[in-house]
Specification:
By secondary structure, the protein is of the alpha/beta class. The chain has a single domain, classed as 3-Layer(aba) Sandwich (Rossmann fold). Helix content is 40%, strand content 18%. It contains 9 helices and 7 strands. Helix 5 links the parallel strand 4 and strand 5. Helix 7 runs antiparallel to helix 9. 38% of the residues are buried.
């Protein structure tokens, strides 16, 4: 079996392969928002994207998508009439996004090195990879609004951004929190989705991706611990909106 994402970063390639084997393909790399136990992950992922889109100004607003995944949302923004531009530092994701969506505007770049002027910046599970201070310092140069859909540490545990520190960094750079929507009851089912399917596709993962059985066992154990952190309230999944106050006009 030819696996075009075999060389994607581990374990991202694992999750993509499980989705491909289960659903016949993969369009998104983010969590789903489940409302029913029996719905598919792609359906739950679509709900997440719809929620994000509902927070955007109408087209043709200038949107910067920081972290494009496979380019699916960026292509949708473009079709909807947005002046959309996407970035990611991952060359493999850029290559696949260009192949799948040749009409989109994107660049292989770090957010901290991005220039331009936008109406809103969107982070869909990408803010966790950027230092909070650096994120809001750069965002203040680029746009008056920021929309974040991501997971956070709610206490001093794990590697995720601490939510209180993230909000404090936003405030230090002039951004006021205008919406906080807790989705922690809906997103963790994505983790459970993969925990349930990793054993089912163990042999295919070993054969097609070159994994060892020990790596599959580690992913199952790690996913179980991760889901438990959500159940204990150590982790949370939130939609956050920020607006930056306009700079005061200089005296005449």
């Amino acid at each position: 079996m030819t696996v075009p994402y075999r060389d994607f970063y581990y374990p991202l390639n694992v999750f993509m392969h499980v989705l491909t084997l289960e659903q016949g393909g993969v369009e998104h790399l983010h969590y789903g928002l489940f409302e029913q136990a029996d719905e598919t992950l792609p359906a739950a992922q679509e709900r997440s994207t719809e929620l994000l889109l509902s927070r955007l100004p109408p087209p043709p607003a200038r949107v910067l998508e920081a972290g494009i995944g496979l380019g699916t949302t960026l292509a949708r923004l473009t079709r909807l009439g947005y002046d959309a531009f996407g970035i990611t530092p991952d060359e493999k994701q850029i290559a696949m996004a260009r192949e799948r969506h040749p009409g989109v505007r994107l660049a292989c770049a770090k957010f901290e090195e991005t220039a331009g002027a936008y109406d809103v910046i969107v982070f869909q599970e990408s803010s966790q990879y950027i230092d909070s201070e650096a994120l809001f310092a750069k965002a203040a140069e680029l746009a008056p609004r920021v929309v974040v859909l991501d997971e956070f540490a709610l206490r001093d545990e794990g590697v995720l951004h601490r939510l209180d520190a993230f909000l404090a960094a936003a405030a230090r750079h002039g951004f006021a929190l205008t919406e906080r929507l807790d989705l922690s009851a809906k997103a963790p089912r994505t983790i459970e989705y993969f925990i349930a399917r990793l054993p089912r596709y163990r042999d295919a993962l070993v054969r097609d991706l070159g994994l060892t059985h020990a790596q599959v066992d580690e992913l199952i154990a790690g996913g179980t611990q991760y889901a438990e952190a959500y159940r204990r309230g150590a982790y949370g999944y939130l939609l956050l909106q920020f607006t930056r106050a306009a700079a005061p006009s200089p005296p005449r």
